[in-house]
Amino acid sequence: MILNQFPDPTVFYCFNFSHGYLHLVGDSQLTKEEESLLVRFTKVFEQTYARFLDLQKAELQAREAQIEVSLERVRAASMAMHQTDELKGVIRIIFDQLSLLNINAEHAGIVVDYKAKQDWNFWVAETQDIPSKITIPYLNSLWDKQFTEAKKKGKEFFTTQLNFSSSTFCSNSLTSERDPTVVPF
């Protein structure tokens, strides 16, 4: 309601409840019966709003429980590893758990032998048919530089967005069908 659209006189009512109030604007005062009715409306809303908040809290607790179960599955798989090639199973579990948590990803990968300005050796799980262990040659690309800088600064993660040709390049790199002379990112 725009200020010049308020009635004259303007009567404001605020019917309080624990988390706020029900607001009513009119051009006249309410009768005692109408006030009582709005008090009842406010109480009903307060009860249903409290229930809504309880459901939100329960949903958050359920989500946290799902996350804890997923983390425990990853922890158990990681602790059961005896050889490096078992990273194939661990990254598959990570990928599957992310999917169960409704985190949309085309693939997930682990690099355990990272060295700046060298090839990247990934253990990968994904939705398409690529090998579980792949090597992406060092390309001195923007992505490589951004990752190396973030790692050097001790950041927990870094993110970048690649354009379509860069994403295609990255996918082609994973399947060894790339043109080594093209560095689009």
Structure described in brief:
This protein has 185 residues and is an alpha+beta fold. The protein contains four helices and five strands. It has a three-stranded antiparallel sheet with strand order 3-4-5.
Strand order of the largest sheet: 3-4-5
> How many domains make up the 3D coordinates?
2
Structural class: alpha+beta
Give the count of helical stretches: 4
Would you write up a description of this structure?
The structure is a single chain. The radius of gyration is 29 Å and the shape is elongated. Strand 4 and strand 5 form a beta hairpin. Strands 3-4-5 form a 3-stranded antiparallel beta sheet. Helix 1 runs antiparallel to helix 2. The protein has 4 helices and 5 strands; from the N terminus they run ββααβββαα. The protein has 2 domains: 57 residues; 94 residues, no CATH class. Helix content is 45%, strand content 16%. By secondary structure, it is an alpha+beta fold. The C terminus is likely disordered.
